[in-house]
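Researcher: Let's continue the batch. This sequence belongs to chitin deacetylase, and it's 464 residues. Same format as the previous ones, please.
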Amino acid sequence: MYIKISAVAVTLIQVVGFAQATTSTVSASKSTVSTLSKPQDYWKSFNSLVDPLNITIAAIPQTTSNDPSVECTYYEPPSNFKYNAKEWPNLWETATSNGMANTSEFQALYNAIDWSKAPKIDVRKLNTDGSINMTGYDQNTDPDCWWSASTCTKPKLEGVNEDIYTCPEPQTWGLTYDDGPNCSHNAFYDYLEAEKIKASMFYIGSNVVNWPYGAQRGQKAGHHIADHTWSHQLMTTLTNTEVLAELYYTQKAIKMVTGVTPIHWRPAFGDVDDRVRWIATQLGLTTILWDLDTDDWAAGTSETLESVQKTYEDFIAMGTNGTFKNSGQIVLTHEIDNTTMTLAMEFLPKIRAAYKNVIDVATCMNITNPYHESTVTIAPFNASAASSPAAAAASSADAVHSAAASVTSGAASDATSKDGSKAAVSAAAAVDSVSTSAGIQVSSNSLLMAFFAAAAAYLFSKLM
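Model: Same format as before. Here are the structure tokens for chitin deacetylase:
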């Protein structure tokens, strides 16, 4: 088996000199819970002001423009999300930062978990070069179902939710986008809405509180919203408390901003083992991975644009050459920057022409209740217009041309975190422009690019 894994050195960046936009407001996100009868009830203590079935997006330049320099400037958060920095982890830092492991709400959750049943699996170590240290780990027997070592997706332990990594229905493209909400995604989301396409959107907690209207738009459009951790780190290298915090505070961010609490999550870089899965299971979360990787995040940096386009074309050909005659697949793509979103709009018409179903993962798995809340549902398999070949044929070319023309391609200027399985971004790709984000003023998605520019990443390939 050919195994790919990308690992980055986790380097915390001190974010200084930014102004608090809402520190004088009283936060609506504060939880008063001090005890929990069972950990799975944690989401019931989130007092969101958002009705997920009745979201209104304010018509401000940042939500209506297709100019990234306009979209990615500071705006006041919506009235139904009051951000108080004292009640959240520091942006892009481990979610235990800012004293968040000691809050009454987090302690209530932590104490409700029976940690005596947690898998006795060591926290992974990083090498000095930023790669994961696999020294001494038997990748052949793979006792911990460590995806980074073996691409294992079926836990070796009972009581741990099994991963979703492919769509079972033939000729199905499971559509997923990581690392949102991106501040400059208006044209991309306009395109998806015009074409009636629904995707699984894996949102990073720091991005959700930074760009709340972006997250609300994803929910309003009916996309399948899922958790992508607070700070996009290699989860197996974090302690139990840190793993729990990364998931919990992202769940809270998504709930407070969109009104829903996901039951699905995706680990950054796919780095998950049975210890991390067990903790996620305590929150009612199931891991979603992938079986095809476009490496779109690397286009124009460690991979040429032409190489990524060729990968897209190869995957599209699989829809007509019989590769997926008896099954489907889940594809890893990203809402990172204008390059990845432009690539998506360029190839989606071809994807829909080649595959019978182009749908989100919840739909391909026929999961009609993808949130803890029972009030928000997703249409069952084959009920979506996006899965219809007739719908795919209607005006796709015009829509993608119009939307793509409005996007300024520039991966460095808007880039957020990088999933995937190849080399990381070089320091030269760090952005030059600085903008601000809702909640607190920071360099927009370029902040994470700078974060990764300080780290090194390496490709590990092994024949098994």
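Researcher: Any comment?
Model: Residues 2-463 form a domain with the TIM Barrel fold (CATH 3.20.20.370).
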